[in-house]
Amino acid sequence: MIREQEQGANALPLNNILAGDCIEIMNSLPAGSVDLIFADPPYNLQLRGDLHRPDNSKVDAVDNDWDQFSSFKAYDDFTREWMAAARRLLKPNGAIWVIGSYHNVFRMGAELQNQGFWILNDVVWRKSNPMPNFRGKRLTNAHETLIWASKQEASKYTFNYEALKALNEGVQMRSDWVLPICTGHERLKDEAGDKAHPTQKPESLLHRVLLGTTNPGDVILDPFFGTGTTGAVAKMLGREFIGIEREEAYRKVAKKRIDAVRKFDKEALQVSQSKRAEPRVAFGVLVERGLLRPGEELVSINGRHTAKVRADGSIVGRDMKGSIHQVGAHMEGAPSCNGWTYWHFKRDGQTVPIDLLRQQIRAEMREQ
Amino acid sequence: MIREQEQGANALPLNNILAGDCIEIMNSLPAGSVDLIFADPPYNLQLRGDLHRPDNSKVDAVDNDWDQFSSFKAYDDFTREWMAAARRLLKPNGAIWVIGSYHNVFRMGAELQNQGFWILNDVVWRKSNPMPNFRGKRLTNAHETLIWASKQEASKYTFNYEALKALNEGVQMRSDWVLPICTGHERLKDEAGDKAHPTQKPESLLHRVLLGTTNPGDVILDPFFGTGTTGAVAKMLGREFIGIEREEAYRKVAKKRIDAVRKFDKEALQVSQSKRAEPRVAFGVLVERGLLRPGEELVSINGRHTAKVRADGSIVGRDMKGSIHQVGAHMEGAPSCNGWTYWHFKRDGQTVPIDLLRQQIRAEMREQ
DNA sequence: CTTACCCGTGAATCAGTAA
DNA sequence: GTTACTGATTCACGGGTAA
């Protein structure tokens, strides 16, 4: 058996990038031979016109042919096919990760369930540095969603609980991961110096996925290999990979990149540590959480000025409205003012600085 | 028309909790009459068993020949029905929020898209104090997902950008919201002292939703009302609500809760306004009123270009004449330009943006 | 050599009104 | 419905250059 798998016609082409359509290629590989699949398929963004930043520069949007689908039906057909091919390749105890945005992730999640995959977690990648919403028409799209699912409900999937706990400063890893997007030297460039791929994923993300849900020596398949982040991190971590990629330009960049990777590079093991900054608390959050009521009166530390709280966290003084800091500075004729210590409120006859409420919120946040 | 809506058979039962099945009741209400729907439907945590409605009646699966997926089918049928009924009730510019976990949110998101809703954002409610994963077999399930969608792609949905920005310490609100789960005094108890509802949502969550995507006076429908968080926050914020709930016990708790809510006073409900809401002022008016003289020179913000004001409110640059916006865009070779902030004039040795003069005019208009 | 400043850029379903 | 015009709108970083 093992000999066949290693040497026969059906041998797994380990640590290679296969050229071609991922559905065809997956269907040509031996069933039940892969431990983990990581899939980052086209998102079907459905972008309309151009978008400019406030400084008039144009956003370099994802307008590649591979992201164009004629309808939801066409996208669903595509999803059903690649997912079925992927599921066939998985060992009985295998698992899959998919990543997407609101454009496609709901359709992928539903199809995973339809095909009998068993969802273990949905994971939110919270981007520490997302692109802002330039027109102010929506919320900043600051996250993407991953779904982790086993081949079937009965699968004894791999989960390295302690490793992830260690990675998370000794407390259980949660379903929301704060990681920066891929920029700087990690972002691969083409010969012209432009980004080699429009949607390169950060290695920190794959590091966490592979560390947490595979063992050394496991076989990891990425059917939408792109510039090979999955392969690069798999190699670092001593896992085997199989990549499938249609576009020659991407394959070329990926091969060069992976060839340069050294196994068990200790520095690489540290890239995924996210920094923990002191959380910023907006004054509006006190209102939102009911610690202060809209309409409630604030008094200045010297008792000379008052202001009223509004529902959105701005405040209104005698002749001005704005943030707690702005209004405080205005009242005192000062260039700046720390509103947290300047403004007080009354509870049970006591006058208390609003900073006390901020400390309360911070304590809650630390509890996790 | 108005009389009919207020007093006729089709009158909207504002600020009431309606008893019964939400699909039937929604179908009995007048179409196109609701501004926002907030839906927190059953999460269907036991997808592999029978599916039950909130009243514990069993949902019949239409297609039983594929037993493994029949329960998904039943959940999808249920989702399709209530969502279609909800969509019918929305005004053309209306919008919907749904909330769920990985058990059901993918199916809801896909169905929203299938029915022609237009997804605006998916939002992650990151729980600051989730329940840990006791068995250590998965990641701590520390978030839930909300989807915000307009009735159709062309809808001019409500988004109070500035208010949410104020709520977030002056930077635009992101798609991930850190909020604690509902505990303590806010968590409603029944007579026995147990929690009155298993999945009561925190008021802070609804505060952000309603402040950000409705205006005072808007009609908000919650078809899975439960203990009435939507109604309580709607009342606080000066919005109208309609609740639908099958279970008498929940309706009773909700009514008592909402009756005790005090509306915030009007001034507190004024939120930060977008500049887009300000009245338009034609540049020519500045000339007309003598704030700028025909022949006066304007200088671009970077000091590189000049233009001359003409009596009709057009301006002339080196090789082009037109509006302040057209000439500015031409000078910079940009697709567009906000002439109000681009062009400056000189007074007493100072260089001042012409937008300052527009603000003067607007102030005069407000006094009038 | 260090610090300060400027510039570039990222999976984006990104406008509203009047004629 | 279409066209034309007005005019509102950005956060976190990394890298490079200037001081």
Automatic annotation (TrEMBL), chains A, B:
E.C. no: 2.1.1.-
Domain of life where this protein originates: Bacteria
Similarity annotation: Belongs to the N(4)/N(6)-methyltransferase family.
Listed InterPro entries: DNA_methylase_N4/N6 (IPR002941), DNA_methylase_N6_adenine_CS (IPR002052), RAMA (IPR040843), RM_Methyltransferase (IPR001091), SAM-dependent_MTases_sf (IPR029063)
Molecular functions per Gene Ontology: DNA binding; N-methyltransferase activity; site-specific DNA-methyltransferase (adenine-specific) activity
This protein's GO CC annotations: cytoplasm
Protein name as catalogued: Methyltransferase
SUPFAM superfamilies found in the cross-reference section: S-adenosyl-L-methionine-dependent methyltransferases
Catalytic activity: a 2'-deoxyadenosine in DNA + S-adenosyl-L-methionine = an N(6)-methyl-2'-deoxyadenosine in DNA + S-adenosyl-L-homocysteine + H(+)
Domain annotation DNA methylase N-4/N-6: ranges: 34-256
Annotated RAMA domain residues: 266-366
Classification lineage: Bacteria, Pseudomonadati, Pseudomonadota, Alphaproteobacteria, Rhodobacterales
